[in-house]
Amino acid sequence: MSGSSTSSGVLSHKKRQTLTRLSALSLVPMLPTQVLASAIHALPRAALIIGNSAYPDSPLTNPVNDANAIAGELKRLGFSVDLQINAGHATMNEAVHNFGTNLTRSRAVGLFYFAGHGLQLDWRNFLVPVDVRLDQADDVPRQTVDLGNLLNSLGRAGNAMNIVVLDACRDNPFGSEHKTGRGLSQMDAPISTLLAYATAPGNVASDGTGKNGLYTENFLKEMVAPEARIEDVFKRVRLAVRRSSQGQQIPWESTSLEEDFYFIPPAEMRKRSQDELDRLFAQELAQWESARKANEPGPLVAYLRAYPSGQFSELAQTTLDQLLAKQGERKISIANTEKNPFTKGTASAGEFRVGDRYLYRVIDLLTGIQSREFTRVVTEITDNEVIFNKGAEITDILGNPRKLANGRILGPNQTYASEYSLGKTWSTRFETTYPDGTTSVIEREFKVVAKEAITVPAGTFDTFRIESFGRRLGFSTRIEHTYWMAPGKIARHIAYNAMERRRNFSFVNTERFELVSFTPGS
After folding, report:
1. pLDDT computed for residue 55 by the predictor
2. Which contacts (CB < 8 Å, 24+ apart) does range 238-244 have?
3. Of 8, 49, 59, 95, which residue is 20 to 30 A from 469 by alpha carbon distance?
4. Which residues of the chain have pLDDT under 50?
């Protein structure tokens, strides 16, 4: 675990001072995202591409084709490319070493791509050269390239960003006697890295029957889409591969990138005006509402292609999952990572059940004084909503609030995500209508920043910690929320810190919600 949190109910004087300083700092203007992106795209670009097909006992059809195609496209996109075809162990090690040295010297944005056989052993991942001869499990680390060592080498280079793409999740050709797992093992991306697999950890991908493998075929299409953020490129690839394979192959990514990267950047990096943002949001909201009401996959897929990281993408993904499951898709799942030391894991949002009973207490973050307790009981569940206390409170199936007990009505929002993993980010924008008829628009950004144990009156839970920052448009109100989720255990939050302050630093809200008890429904 990366840390722990306990529930004392009272913030110490030192913690209150720190909280106040951090809140004040959060109002200081940050370096604009477009400036950071411009700086990234002023850097050189370098790639190492390896395609291994000619395995003596288990040849593959497409990796050489895939590597040649990726190398050609990257050259057209301004990358200097080292292309290695059917590389043996010594050649792969030398190429990786030279690549790290090049990145150290040039500080280039780095991209590593491997197509071929890959395998996992004891939670470690290995990329397989064409001259491998595996007679026993001990041969694996000696004769292959350890992905962990490769990532460490890239990390030591000190360059701004690395992208690692592995189309290496084929069936293990070396026999079960070597005790290697299926596919690749899950790993959390090191700092300033995006790590992409052709399919979910613990699963295998087909080599394909066409000119390119299914994953690389779609990667080639999406990487040349103008003005597409790197995360959106891979989200579109994931969607396309899933639909083409009917859910039997779903690519996976882990990211720790702090800046945007574009294969083809916008001609001009600029900050949009509020009027422009409002207009674009209205267009997105209209497409989401249309997709939601259509009750079929096509419009949802179209929305997710148009807005891979949209204000409703978590909701769209969940709705698509539901519809495809009803149509018979047997979606693959990520292998269990409970004992894996190289990842904090990935967990899907929890499921509500009729009869679930949650008791919370509310504490003032500054004084530590408990103000009240309240109970929420799931009394009904529909296809789209979870109804608490016979309608006093209503959420969507992820737990995102739509009606609060105090009478507020919230538009479609994604405070809670469809799944959680370290480094995941998302955003939301929605309108709140108050009992007196007035409205406000809220914008928030979220990031999963840690996996940690937290102790509340209900017990100790292994949780994902999510930090959120945002604003209430037109009110100069800064929103700073932190919450802890234990998906798979409890569908609602374990604890929730809600801080809101005005520009003059006066507090609007300083509440902490803690789970006192939970009784599952039947």
Report:
1. 95
2. 239/301, 239/304, 239/305, 239/308, 241/198, 241/199, 241/214, 241/215, 242/331, 243/297, 243/301, 244/214, 244/218
3. 8
4. 1-32, 176-178
Condensed to tens digits (0 to 9), the pLDDT of residues 415-474 reads: 999 999 999 999 999 999 999 999 999 999 999 999 999 999 999 999 999 999 999 998
φ, ψ dihedrals at 129, nearest 5°: -70, 170
Token pair 């690395």 in the structure block, residue = 162
Q: Is residue 129 part of a domain?
A: yes
- Which amino acid is residue 20, in one-letter code? T
Q: What sign for the dihedral angle of Cα 286, 297, 487, 333?
A: negative
Between 313-326 and 297-306, two packed helices, what is the crossing angle to 10 degrees? Answer: 150
Shared domain check, 509 and 434: yes
The answer to whether residues 316 and 451 belong to one domain is no
Residues 207/170, Cβ–Cβ less than 8 Å: yes
Give the residue among 64, 58, 173 at the shortest CA–CA distance from 115. 64
Q: Tell whether 353 and 424 lie within a shared domain.
A: yes
Question: Quick one: which of 141, 195, 150 has its CA closest to 343?
Answer: 195
Distance (Å, whole) CA 484 – CA 376: 18
Domain span including residue 193: 33-255
Do residues 513 and 407 share a domain? yes
Contact 405, 398 (CB under 8 A): no
Q: Which pair of structure tokens corresponds to residue 392?
A: 């006093």
What is the Cα–Cα distance from 343 to 93, expressed in whole angstroms? Answer: 25
- Element (H or E) spanning 430, and its range? strand 425-433
Query: Which residues have a Cβ under 8 Å from the Cβ of 82 and sit 6 or more positions away?
Result: 46, 47, 48, 49, 95, 98, 99
How far is residue 371's CA from residue 368's CA, in Å, rounded to a whole number? Answer: 9
The answer on 424 and 357 residing in a single domain is yes
Residue 225 maps to a domain: yes
Per the DSSP assignment, residues forming a β-bridge with 486 are 490
Assess if residue 262 is contained within a domain.
no
In tens, the pLDDT along 122-165 reads: 999 999 999 999 888 889 999 999 999 999 999 999 999 999 99
354-377 CB burial, b ≥16 within 10 A, e <16? eebebbbbbbbbbeeeeeeeeebb
- Alpha carbon distances (Å) from 120 to 59, 145, 180, 182, 517: 19, 11, 5, 7, 40
Question: Which pTM was predicted?
Answer: 0.90
- Please check whether residue 337 lies inside any domain of the structure: no
* Residues 331, 335, 337: CA angle, nearest 5 degrees: 145
| DSSP bridge partners of 48 | 82, 112
Instruction: Domain count for the chain, please give it.
Output: 3
Name 519's bridge partners. 357
Sheet arrangement for strand 118-121: 118-121, 124-127, 145-146
Q: Do 491 and 514 share a domain, yes or no?
A: yes
Burial of 428 (0-12, 13-18, 19+ CB in 10 A): buried
Last residue of a domain, one of 205, 222, 255: 255
The residue type at 186: Q
Q: Residue 501 contacts by C-beta under 8 Å, 6 or more apart in sequence?
A: 23, 477, 478, 480, 507, 508
